Amino acid sequence: MADAAHLLSMEGVCKRVPDAADRWLFEAAALGLHRGEFVAVLGESGVGKSTLLHIVAGLDRKDGGTLCFAGQDLDALDDDARTLLRRRQMGFI
Length: 93
Known about the structure:
The chain is of the alpha+beta class. It has a single domain (8-89), classed as Rossmann fold (3-Layer(aba) Sandwich). The chain has helices at 49-56, 79-89; strands at residues 8-17, 20-33, 64-69, 72-73. Strands 2-1-3-4 form a 4-stranded antiparallel beta sheet, covered by helices on one side. 15% of the residues are buried. The model has no long low-confidence stretch (mean pLDDT 89).
């Protein structure tokens, strides 16, 4: 699902706890960000903030849902293409 109005479009993104298939770090995460928007990810230790950012950056794989950045489905990109996308279009502080 690529939403042309958003730079980042996330729908139903989920990630399981490693080695615990029945436990989730997060389920059904959804977010739409426009170019130039700033967002802070807040939460207690261990709730999946870093994992979510790794998934958005294409460093880690999600277990479900859709995630598009700049109109591209990150699952459709190989490692080299995700690296170029991060290098050219993403920034994290």
